[in-house]
């Protein structure tokens, strides 16, 4: 039995939010269908009791290729931007339905195929595990922006899984059919399954990268204190619970954690369960 | 770059009230489906995948369900693809109705006032010439498609040409 504690509780809240977001996605079109209109929209943009919240990526897209830019769109991205500035990419880990799906698939797969790369078990002595280069991730983001500008077509609509999923659910409820966006989400999940990594979520997804843009030196981050870490000194060198717990296969103790990390808090929970407190969420940049 | 995909053909569907010109609209729209969700008559539908890159964007097929000009959708649009400030139904310009006189019943000698009576811009959008022949007034017509929906002629005698002044 795991000790019930701070990050364990946090993760439980995260699960509640994830289930809630899926319920929300299904409930909103149903409510609209039966004539209740104080809440409407999907993960591209939604309005709750007159307050509009939009995806910052969609505002960026409109800024790049759009002809008309509305001030209301700028106001509507304020809340997501503020959350991203304070807490980082928590949208991905707490709300994004694609992440919930991918996490579920990967957890199930890692139970079914125990010694696969779904869960990375570093070999004893293999402490060279590194995070992907942050600069290369930003180059991928810049590549999307350039492609978007050249195409002059709202490309990000087909690159943001949370929006596509909620869009499809609404379409199914209203018109009883499914569009081809579902194929895109399915192929992303399939590719992530074949490669056994979560490369899309951590590196390619423009929604997450756009939220990662708003990270400041003072925003919440995973902070590593080498003195508190007991796993470095332990005899079997492969024992790194934080590393194994990360659903994105990141190494929380190493550099270049951002913009890939989306603060799911599983590494902190794993660290906590060993009885140490080397990993903490702090409002101070460790780098 | 994508001009290859753009067919210079007339649209067969209307865009929701307040929509900007077709090219601007299809780039501004983020497929958030808010207009579809707020529409009380469920006349706005998402374009099926057969419409290529425009699939998922909102459209009105007036023959099935026309726009009843409740003006709920323009304020719901977050991006400005639909003009947010539009609130008067008389200012809507979704298209212009065109009467095919070879099919229209009064021109064939049958008494019919269906489109005239159902026009939401009553006695301005469609007028009756000699108390008999319906005539569309292009300056007043909002292009809601109600006339197209109610027309009893077997073949479409009145049809809304989308996007007045915007081109295809």
Low-confidence stretches of chain A: none
What percentage of amino acids of chain B are in beta strands? 5-15%
User: Which CATH class of the domain at 92-162 in chain B applies here?
Assistant: Alpha Beta
Calculate the terminal CA-CA distance of chain B, rounded to whole Å: 18 Å
The figure for the number of domains of chain A is 1
Biggest β-sheet of chain A, characterized?
3 strands, antiparallel
Task: Output the structural class of chain A.
Answer: mainly alpha
Main-sheet strand order of chain A equals: 1-2-3
Question: What's the number of extended β-strand segments of chain A?
Answer: 5
Count of separate DSSP helical elements of chain A: 13
Total DSSP E strands of chain B: 6
Distance between the termini of chain A: 35 Å
Total number of helices of chain B = 5
Might you state the CATH topology name of the domain at 92-162 in chain B? Alpha-Beta Plaits
Question: What structural class do you assign from the helix and strand content of chain B?
Answer: alpha+beta
Profile the largest sheet of chain B. Answer: 2 strands, antiparallel
* SSE ordering of chain A: HEEEHHHHHHHHHHEHHE
Overall shape of chain A? globular
Helix/strand order of chain B: HHEEHEHEEHE
Give helix % range of chain B: 10-25%
Structural summary, described in words:
The complex is a heterodimer of chains A (287) and B (168). By secondary structure, chain A is mostly helical. Chain A has one domain. Chain A has helices at 6-33, 56-65, 71-76, 78-87, 90-95, 97-112, 134-151, 161-175, 181-195, 199-204, 206-212, 241-245, 266-273; strands at residues 39-42, 45-48, 51-54, 221-224, 279-282. A three-stranded antiparallel beta sheet of chain A has the order 1-2-3. In chain A, strands 4-5 form a two-stranded antiparallel sheet. Chain A is globular. Chain B is an alpha+beta fold and 168 residues long. Chain B has a domain at 92-162: Alpha-Beta Plaits, CATH 3.30.70. Helices cover 15% and strands 14% of the residues of chain B. Chain B is built from five helices and six strands; from the N terminus they run ααββαβαββαβ. Chain B has a two-stranded antiparallel sheet with strand order 1-2. In chain B, strands 3-6 form a two-stranded antiparallel sheet. In chain B, strands 4-5 form a two-stranded antiparallel ribbon. The longest helix of chain B has 7 residues, at 22-28. The two termini of chain B are 18 Å apart. The model of chain B has no long low-confidence stretch (mean pLDDT 86).
């Amino acid at each position: 039995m795991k000790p019930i504690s701070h990050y364990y509780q946090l993760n439980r809240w995260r699960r509640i939010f994830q289930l809630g977001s899926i319920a929300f996605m299904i409930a909103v079109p149903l409510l609209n269908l039966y004539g209740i209109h104080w809440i409407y929209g999907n993960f591209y943009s939604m309005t709750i009791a007159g307050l509009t919240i939009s995806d910052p990526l969609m505002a960026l897209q409109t800024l790049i290729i759009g002809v008309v830019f509305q001030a209301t769109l700028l106001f509507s991205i304020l809340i997501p931007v503020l959350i991203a500035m304070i807490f980082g990419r928590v949208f991905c880990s707490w709300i994004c339905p694609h992440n919930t799906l991918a996490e579920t698939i990967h957890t199930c797969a890692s139970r079914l195929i125990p010694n696969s790369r779904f869960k990375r078990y570093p070999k004893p002595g293999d402490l060279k595990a590194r995070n992907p280069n942050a600069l290369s991730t930003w180059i991928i983001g810049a590549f999307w922006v350039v492609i978007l500008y050249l195409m002059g077509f709202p490309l990000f609509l087909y690159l943001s899984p949370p929006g596509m999923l909620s869009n499809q659910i609404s379409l199914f409820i209203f018109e009883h059919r499914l569009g081809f966006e579902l194929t895109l989400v399915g192929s992303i999940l399939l590719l992530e399954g074949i490669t056994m990594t979560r490369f899309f979520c951590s590196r390619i997804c423009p929604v997450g990268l756009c939220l990662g843009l708003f990270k400041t030196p003072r925003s919440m981050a995973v902070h590593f204190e080498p003195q508190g870490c007991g796993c470095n000194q332990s005899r079997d060198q492969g024992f790194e619970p934080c590393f194994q717990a990360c659903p994105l296969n990141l190494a929380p103790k190493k550099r270049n954690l951002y913009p890939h990390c989306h603060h799911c808090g599983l590494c902190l929970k794993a660290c906590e369960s060993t009885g140490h407190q080397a990993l903490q969420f702090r409002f101070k940049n460790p780098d | 770059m994508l001009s290859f995909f753009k067919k210079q053909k007339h649209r067969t569907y209307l865009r929701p009230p307040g929509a900007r010109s077709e090219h601007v609209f299809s780039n501004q729209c983020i497929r958030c489906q808010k207009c579809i969700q707020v529409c009380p008559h469920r006349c706005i539908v998402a374009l099926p995948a057969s419409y290529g890159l425009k699939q998922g964007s909102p459209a009105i097929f007036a023959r099935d369900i026309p726009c009843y000009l409740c003006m709920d959708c323009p304020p719901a649009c977050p991006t400005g693809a639909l003009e947010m400030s539009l609130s008067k139904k008389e200012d809507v310009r979704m298209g212009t109705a065109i009467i095919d006189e070879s099919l229209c019943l009064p021109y064939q000698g049958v008494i019919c006032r269906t489109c005239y009576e159902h026009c939401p811009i009553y006695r301005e959008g469609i007028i009756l010439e000699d108390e008999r022949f319906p005539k569309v007034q292009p300056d007043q017509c909002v292009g809601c498609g109600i006339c197209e929906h109610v027309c009893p002629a077997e073949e479409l005698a009145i049809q809304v040409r989308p996007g007045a002044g915007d081109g295809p």
